[in-house]
Design brief:
This protein has 138 residues and is mainly β. The chain has 2 domains: 1-66, 2,3-Dihydroxybiphenyl 1,2-Dioxygenase, domain 1 (Roll); 78-138, 2,3-Dihydroxybiphenyl 1,2-Dioxygenase, domain 1. The chain has helices spanning 20-30, 90-98, and strands spanning 12-17, 35-39, 44-49, 52-58, 80-84, 109-113, 116-124, 130-137. The mean pLDDT is 89.
Amino acid sequence: MTRPFDIQRIDHLVLRVRELERSIAFYGDVLGCPVERRRDHLGLVHLRAGASMIDLVGVDGRLGARGGAPAGSEGRNVDHVCLRVEPFDEAALVAHLARFGIAPTGPAEVNFGAEGDGLSLYLHDPDGNTIELKGSSA
């Protein structure tokens, strides 16, 4: 079967968050994802993540309310978001996260991704969503 299209890459990911401004600060200050556009009437903020976007939707906003209760310790809306980073210097990444009071969930480990195997660190955003910071193939 032939399809009339080919998938190129992930365009964007939408995360429902409890406190929109707190999450904007986390993704902007900690991960370096600047605000690209705000759509306050929807409770939606688009953040630039390299060639992709991470969209944050406040659970109390027009769009976020559609999803019901926010994710909690007993359940998640998304397993994790993987952000490809360069360079991958574990000590520098851990030190950077520590400046924000964030510790990775464990030491770097090799994981498979779109570009093959590479080292990854995992951490949590303010809503408990897991973020993977992944380096290039070894």
